[in-house]
What does this fold into?
Amino acid sequence: MVRSLHHPSIHDYGRTVPSWWAASAGKGPDAPPLKGTVQAEVAVIGAGVTGLNAALALARAGVSAVVVDAAPLGWGASGRNGGFCCLGSSKRSWQQIIRQFGLAEARRFFNLQAAAIDHVRDVIAEHAIACDKGPPGELIFAHHRHARARLEAEAEMMRDVFRVDALMMSRADLREFGLVTGENRPGLMVPHGFPLHPLKYLHGLARAVLAAGVPVHGESPVTAWTREGARHRLVTPGGEVLADRVAVATAGFTREDLSPAFAGRLLPVLSNIIVTKPIDRAARIAQGFTSRTMCADSRRLLHYFRLLPDGRLLFGARGGISAAPGAEPAMKARLEGDLARMFPAFAGVGVDYFWRGLTDITFDRLPHLGTVEDGSVHYLLGFHGNGLAMGSLGGAMMGARLAGLPVDLPAAISRPLPRFPLSALRQTYLRAAYAAYGLGDRLGR
Ligand SMILES: Cc1cc2nc3c(=O)[nH]c(=O)nc-3n(C[C@H](O)[C@H](O)[C@H](O)COP(=O)(O)OP(=O)(O)OC[C@H]3O[C@@H](n4cnc5c(N)ncnc54)[C@H](O)[C@@H]3O)c2cc1C
It folds into this structure.
């Protein structure tokens, strides 16, 4: 079986992630490899925000659990993302969601996304996690003159359907707000969300999980998964877990050989980030970009960017087909070129960090929280590049379900995770989709 759709190096758990987060987070809690046989009611596979929030919910419900991760703590997407705690998790438009599930269900899905942000805020407060929270709100810049109408329709939908104070901001408004890019276009301000330091958040979560009595084992990839009667046996290089139930929280780093139940159901795609050297105040003022508000643009292959507390600019982009190390310089150069075009005043600042990672797309472009086999395997997968908030609340909901507690899920996320038709062709679909998105982005469609 194909173990990964991507170059194997992207799953090299020994390869350190050269991120600004890793350079600035400080030391995380110890998560030693699993040794020997451990028994628990629930085994959680994956120690990202999803798995750790599930573990916290299990501990709270008095259910014994153990978390195993293939890599050192913080290595996955949760420790290397852009730190945008924001709405999202699906790649469907709200119109499509309303058409498929109806207005009431669309509202429930929206409310879940908003609640996910509140959940992260609450977890941070409850466990006193110092993770450099930034100001509330997210600005989506129009990237093309045609994109403005799309954003206006989105603002109207948010106001009329979801009762959200979404606001179109003119170029003059944005100048006043300290959010001017070289593209000089209006944008949509959504009041939800806030930026944070993702690895500090993850370390804080892991400390809370450990304090609640749940062991967390890094460097412990599940290499075999069998059944022993009703129980699950998860084998790692140093040990094994025997568990009644399993939570799968492996997102974009899910390998094809983890379990046949998930093979062919996810399309892992790359997201890429550069972080500049600290930009001095004069250059930030010259650019007109002084706010720490998190921003993205309206491209399908979007850019996301924000100023960090020490004046660095984090600048990310979805895209890139090859995860091979040899393809990294070209992607870094592309990001640097885009940054220079969008922020002419920052062009010569210099880039200190470049890294990338995988996020997960599903065939129906929705996240899925469900069960497989005899109902003893629960999963939450499919974040479409936006899983910091949804993985956190969804993980807690998955933990609650594993503990037998009632959890009310919107229809949009509770249908079974579909398999991609002709799943061996997923990379081909991706190439075709990226070519179409690139063209659409250039034309403003
Ligand atoms: C570069 C980048 C930028 C992003 N920016 C944002 C952002 O700003 N905001 C946002 O909301 N989302 C963002 N995302 C997406 C977000 O990071 C993810 O959706 C979210 O972190 C998923 O969390 P998770 O816990 O489900 O998975 P992960 O954090 O990816 O954790 C999964 C874990 O499973 C482990 N694993 C895999 N296979 C096995 C195995 N066989 N045995 C044991 N362990 C295994 C992996 O080692 C990994 O640590 C970004 C993603 C990337 C890559």
Observations:
- The mean pLDDT is 95.
- The chain has one domain: 8-443.
- Residues 8-443 form a domain with the FAD/NAD(P)-binding domain fold (CATH 3.50.50.60).
